[in-house]
Fold each of these.
Amino acid sequence: MGVTIHDVAKRAGVSPATVSRVLNDRPGIRAETRERVLKAARELGYIPDFSARSLATKRTHTLGFLVHARHSLSSHSFYGQVLAAAEKEARQHGYHLLFSTVHDEAPLMLEEQRVEGLILAGCDIPRALILHLKHSGVPFVLVDNHLPGVNSIVIDNEGGAYEAVSHLIRLGHREIGFLCEWMEDLSFAERFAGYKRALQDHGLPYRPELVAEGEPRTPGSGYIAAQRLLQKARPSAVFVANDLTAVEAMRAFREAGLDIPKDIAVVGFDDGDLAPVAYPPLTTVRVFRDALGIQAVRRLLYIIEHPSTPPLQIRVFTKLIIRESCGTPLHAQRPPKPADAGA
Amino acid sequence: MGVTIHDVAKRAGVSPATVSRVLNDRPGIRAETRERVLKAARELGYIPDFSARSLATKRTHTLGFLVHARHSLSSHSFYGQVLAAAEKEARQHGYHLLFSTVHDEAPLMLEEQRVEGLILAGCDIPRALILHLKHSGVPFVLVDNHLPGVNSIVIDNEGGAYEAVSHLIRLGHREIGFLCEWMEDLSFAERFAGYKRALQDHGLPYRPELVAEGEPRTPGSGYIAAQRLLQKARPSAVFVANDLTAVEAMRAFREAGLDIPKDIAVVGFDDGDLAPVAYPPLTTVRVFRDALGIQAVRRLLYIIEHPSTPPLQIRVFTKLIIRESCGTPLHAQRPPKPADAGA
DNA sequence: CTGTTAGCGCATTCAA
DNA sequence: TTGAATGCGCTAACAG
């Protein structure tokens, strides 16, 4: 422990500077010398000291990965996978990932010069922080979030929702509800937009009584949203803005005596761990978490190398995964205009 | 950007060394000087450079957090929460967390001297790696895993399982099955041991035909395990070694025409996101993920400060969370010795 | 109590 | 093509 560039130099019979050159692939080294240095380094098990190199080069080969503290709790499985994918991609480029939950102030890791750039995951990163970062010129990219003029990797929320709702329409549904935890969330708002556009494109009216929210960030929010919906209307299908909310809503539907998908079809969004094991298995929109993580790292590294590159928004498309909760075409099983079904 | 200790020194009218002393709370500084330096530092917005400090002190104030790559996939929500809790705890002690998936070789972050110690989460960390680390004297602690003579934070798998099975027995069950993905997993093996001890302590025989495994690390492993069980026996209750497997098993039971919990009671283990939204809501053993993360960090920091402290195993107890999948006492609803129920 | 000197390990001038 | 000297920003040993 502690073999330095000097040790290698001595063993190879050259100067430390030469060793440094060889190890950094600098030009102007005789092939023979090069081999000798490499051999010595290998034999000694030399590994460059990270701090020393950082100090000399001003580069840490480290990226910060930040998520909002709230997400550590519930839907962390989502960002956990993004994180894991990002780490893998970063490692392949010789980078490491410093993980942190985000707070209101500028991240310390940045000011201490620990990281060369930041990945900010989730749409509840404080706006002020993002603007501060943008202003200060630090390389960073948003994931599952966006802002004009800022680099971001986004989910095709609108398109995914559109596809999901279109599928329900194709199955014969005409009264399709929309459920979410709360509309303030950027992702949910975009999914809501996709829902409305799908209705419109298929000539169906948008009816506010088919839309319900739960309580922001409350466990069982989907359960509440579903109950609220049932008090106003009795759609034959609902599109729910995320899987967890969908599963909670299904519970409320069952308790109201409705069978899924016979009495009410359900489609979610995310396709996380939950969806395949839900009862019934949830038809949902798959979000490619790995792609989010990989693209975020690639984009960030590119920005670091090319600081003046104009900001980009990269959209990761989704895929509708059909399971059982959305049922089959309605034609055979019920009349075109159902009045009132269960309870 | 780039205000150094020299700038602060000049502004305060002292030497850089004095600034360093003040900033590091070294004794032997006149109060007045101290104030002057602090003021200058504040006014200049001075923040110490991480690399320079690390190089001089050989301390990075960084901990590595490693999980096996496999866990990034499925049960990551589990380690994600451990990670988030660990990060929070670390931050409160002025430490950062470097996240990585683990591979066979010694982690690069260690050899580059990036981290002062390691947290290894999960019981599928290569044995050879652990032994290598132990041999090389690096401070590290295992989470949800253990080995003789090695610092670890463990879940009370045996006790949690014992409590779960005892509860089923108290409810009147006499034929209780055990299901898991595979026995090779250390955690599952311990939960199995708890299952057997509970049977024994309550005077019930251990019957191998009531035990079934699925396929290692296969999606739907619990489904398979449940099917295998049903071909051999028809217990009135099952204890399943983790929630995901339990939920999959419940699906198989339902498809076999069994009602949960009426025909078969189910208890899981983990109490992750899945349990409360499962159908029916899953009775399970809660694992306190936050505690695992917090204790891991505290223990690791202690080891770093006191290298010769003898290794410890810290056991985090569990808590049985009763929901609906385990049902109510049997007395009222069925005869003491049921022969064969559904099918 | 405080300033001066000397590295930490590496990369990068400038000479040779 | 290579070596010697210098500095990155900070801490620590030694004076004073």
Amino acid sequence: MKQKVTLKQIAKELDVSISTVSKALKDSVEISLDTRQKVKAFAKLYNYKPNNIALSLKNRKTKTIGVIIPEIVHHFFTTVIGGVEKVANEKGYNVIICSSNNSFDKEVINMEMLASGSADGFILSVAKETQLKKDYHHIEETMNQGMPVVLFDRIIDEVVCDKVIIDDAKGAQTATNHLLSLGCKRIAILTTVDYISVGKLRTNGYLRALRAYEVPEREELILKIEDIDNCESEISDFLKDKDVDAIFAVNELFAVAAAKVLHEQGKNIPKDVAIIGFTDGILSKHFIPSLTTVSQHGEDMGVQAAKLLIDKLEGDDAAIEEYRTVIIDTSLVQRQSTKKTKG
Amino acid sequence: MKQKVTLKQIAKELDVSISTVSKALKDSVEISLDTRQKVKAFAKLYNYKPNNIALSLKNRKTKTIGVIIPEIVHHFFTTVIGGVEKVANEKGYNVIICSSNNSFDKEVINMEMLASGSADGFILSVAKETQLKKDYHHIEETMNQGMPVVLFDRIIDEVVCDKVIIDDAKGAQTATNHLLSLGCKRIAILTTVDYISVGKLRTNGYLRALRAYEVPEREELILKIEDIDNCESEISDFLKDKDVDAIFAVNELFAVAAAKVLHEQGKNIPKDVAIIGFTDGILSKHFIPSLTTVSQHGEDMGVQAAKLLIDKLEGDDAAIEEYRTVIIDTSLVQRQSTKKTKG
DNA sequence: ATGCCTTACGCAAACGTTTGCGTGTGGAAA
DNA sequence: TTTCCACACGCAAACGTTTGCGTAAGGCAT
């Protein structure tokens, strides 16, 4: 088992100094052509690769982006990561991914760990607990130490930094509008508890659409789901003897759960009840009937976030003080769950 | 914007040497109690955190595990990552994730990048292209440089290292047995092209089950799908005027696609045709009808893989020469798609 | 007063790089 | 023969740690 070869070893073998080897590999004119060729041949033979750690220490940068997301087993977040990776790799950056598991503590630990030398900057979607706790000191501290942070999806208004979001309210409004334009009058919304920023925003968009259409908003058509793991029974109870003709769900799981409940109740989708979800994942695509949904373009978000971060990392000082918020357009992906029934 | 504080800065402020600070923070008896307290107070005040990069360089290890998977937007792989993360974090390891995007070149690049200082060892599921190309030099080289590699799921028989797999053939056999025990006679299989190891193994298990039941295997009931993105139409053609009473699919997507095709053809699941898939993902769980499936216990695989790797990383030299293969038990998750119809 | 031991600290090397600058050697010009 | 200039290379510092060992100061015993 041959260990990794270093400059020092090459230098020793060739009986030259370390600096000569280093310069030779970089084709420095300081070094004679002859020596250069010898060194390079040797380096290739022994498969020399510069040690990233040493380079990081010397350059005081790691060429690594830290991504912290609330859940790793989550379609939307993985699409975002896909986008980040794409841009990062193009620009020679590595990506480290950590999940906070929606735990505040784990978010802090991961961030501190990566901040102490492992990453140059962060792309972050905050944990539920963090949103609830409203404690952002770890983010502020990281930024204070000169490491840029880009927030996406679940952002924090109070923290001043680059952000990538979708216009949640607008997306929800568009979706609701679509239901209204189909002639639906009794549109229920399945949403989250208020401290989840995106849930609240989407609810607002729903309400805005109703008002614009002068459809009375009715408290009893709003369900704020607490326990996401148990949403199906909550939805079942909620829908029981409620005469709705459409459902807008603020995420994919709620939409699917609603569809299942309706199916059990013998209702037809879209004839009896139309459904629109949020987040264009595989569930919406493959469900029968396939579900109309508001696409968040996760990969795009990742791409934009990575670009913002790398701009900050490589930008001149002028740009550093300026923070941008990129708003990704949502789009309504129309599928069977809102197909107009003929006649 | 205060930069990260280093030992040197603390030393300067307190007018002591760097080594004194370092030792004081480690509560060395070499340092007087008085100095120790002073240093620690100062360190806490300035939120000192040792620089991981410097430590990595000094210790010649990074406490980081590199995970390379074929796809990041993939439920099964993310569950595996979840398992890896769990164990890794418990043991103080970081996890770097890279996706090869099923490209051989990207797999090599990622591996070399991480191997040159960023990770101490690898957990890897090889890209399709790599399996097709049968070029494993990057894996061998990495191991030759003293970095342990654990292969999972899509493994390579020719490479000698730790492995975590499921018994694909057995899982498939169990699934097929279940269909047979339900009284199904004309069981089709939707599988992949042969060079995908898991596809082939699962097909073998299917055939084995048929033989054990003395059901004739019929070539025309085997569909090897080439273009996974277009599987629905392939399946549709395949199923057209074929009188099958059960379908075994070697992955989740094929199972769902089959279910959709059957639905379009007006067939009832499970009454007309029973379906079993492979991989217990969200699609199988939420589909109507919910799909019976062979669970691979992805998180378990991740846990085991991480344990194997960390054992190698921290084990004494005796253990290093010995390679283990952990076989994770599959289990059949019975759902509606194979419910026995009464009578 | 001298010697010795303990206490409390600093020095320096090491991990693997990069790079500005200093320097020895050779040849050519005067 | 002396002087000068390239050329080709080496030295050393720096990045932030850790740690074995050396050492100054002080106290105590003789």
Amino acid sequence: MTTSLRRDAERNRRVLLDTARELMARDGLSVSYEDIARAAGMGMGTIYRRFPDRRDLVTALFSEHVDTVVGFAEEASGDPDAFAGLCRFLERQLELEAANRGLGELLRGHGGPSELVRRARLRMTPLVAGLIGRAVAAGRLPAGVTPGDFVAVHVMVGSVLDASREIAPDLWRRALAVGLAGLRHARLPGDAPGDEVVERLYNDGK
Amino acid sequence: MTTSLRRDAERNRRVLLDTARELMARDGLSVSYEDIARAAGMGMGTIYRRFPDRRDLVTALFSEHVDTVVGFAEEASGDPDAFAGLCRFLERQLELEAANRGLGELLRGHGGPSELVRRARLRMTPLVAGLIGRAVAAGRLPAGVTPGDFVAVHVMVGSVLDASREIAPDLWRRALAVGLAGLRHARLPGDAPGDEVVERLYNDGK
DNA sequence: AACGAAGTGGAATCTCTCTTCAACTTGAGA
DNA sequence: TCTCAAGTTGAAGAGAGATTCCACTTCGTT
């Protein structure tokens, strides 16, 4: 097995992960390695040895959270009221993001594309599409709404969350209410965002 | 008068402004001074001598645009249909932002607070408040909507614009439709964003 | 209790952009 | 034309992270 760190190294790895988790939850994904190392009481060499690529660190830290979000989508799929499921899904996801800045950045693509998240979306998109289909059939959403529009609402609400988290940590709920009500009631102009566009929306335009 | 640059310096200043205007419209406010200087065919010293503070450059470049936006607000105020005026106001503003990335960043506070924009908002906020009041009175908006909620919608739509401008330059119109319909139909939870929060929303959380 | 592989610390280096400045050029008044 | 204040240039300095690297320490095996 590849897993056979020396006992002290394993302990350090854990401390490092715990420290990084905490810092990234509070300050976002791009905390400097130096800050993490200092907070963990180690040298920079240690963190670079263990996670030469930042993405490995992020993946190690957040894969559970991401699975949780996928779980939300699955639960939502089981909701008899599809539109309510959709709302609840976005709400729960944003609650996590509100509590964890790094997770929000990860899910909404700040800090670059992530394979972890890409795969999660691959699992969630069909679920969301199914929910939207059911909601449309039930007359709770206008025809023409696509998963891409949900992504747009997620990004929109996320931008309010990012801008107000320090000073009004619940304001995103207002934005979410606006976004969801808008989806229900808007006459959507133009073409629905295609896959490539959704990819961009979720990667901060990059 | 303070204005008495040597003729060559005056010419250079104009070239510099034109070049910077073009680059900032395309790439945003934070183009490096080096890029501007190179594109203008000058040394970096020249641009630093003329605009030691980037904000002076930005103000010189965008004050007309900002006045235009204030003009939009004034025109909107004159609209007999207050809600339509509000919609049109946001739409026109975003049209400008779509055509000019730097302007969008300026108006939505990426790249730091700007005195120019702060003053413009001081003039626009009462106009928007008046429009909202009339729209509420006309039953086109629910009571409880505040200028801060409009700011939030602006920020929300702007985030979609920023993320999709390169690949789907009209997608923001969809987001705008969602935002405006949402404002009309949402039951807004929590407290309306206060002045300090609006300031944050418009300054990218900083 | 000694050895070597694994692990660690943190100064040095790299990179990137912002900013300064001393030497050089030019415009325009005398 | 001559002079010099004003203007220009771009290399060098400063700052902030990111990343490397090697002398030194520690673990765990024999």
